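User: Here's a chain of 211 residues. Predict its fold as tokens.
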Amino acid sequence: MVITRDNIIEWITRYAETLAENRDYLTQLDAAIGDADHGANMDRGFQAVMKKLPELRDKDIGTIFKTVGMTLLSTVGGAGGPLYSTIFLQAGMKTTGKMELTLQDWIDALDAGISGVKMRGKAELGDKTMIDALVPALNALKHAEENGSTLSDALERAARAAEEGMKATIPLVARKGRASYLGERSAGHQDPGATSSYLLLRTIAEQLKNS
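Assistant: Prediction complete.
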């Protein structure tokens, strides 16, 4: 089993729909510890991406990812724009010319994206950011690959790990981003970036399972 170009298009489409559905929820999370704009910003960015998708249906996966990244960079405000843009741009570099992705290809692309986010945001595991969802997901993917899991099972494990990481941000005191200004008051709130990252990985797991 592989992730095809069509799978990628459908994943991005479904994620845009998921963001629209969760726009208010993400904004509520961000209102508690941030600028109350994460839901609106992400929704706006992926609605812009949706307008680009028709012209990308015959392109390779790397081109699709890079176009998504550049679109997000130019349309998403706040910290989310540059960080999500980095994920897709770095993943695009790893998947240039590819029409389908194996599990190892997907791991390499996500690994590159996360490394880019760490470099740009200077965040590490435990800082109460999107990294807290992304890193456990990547580790779960690597473990699944080492144990011979199917692609679908590996993506499901990654989504579950991302969910656990997302929930684990609730008691944390933020050390990076806007939430860090609140100090101890940031504890007790789920990080919005970790939440949108979980939704990203949950969406592709469901897309592959249903394809």
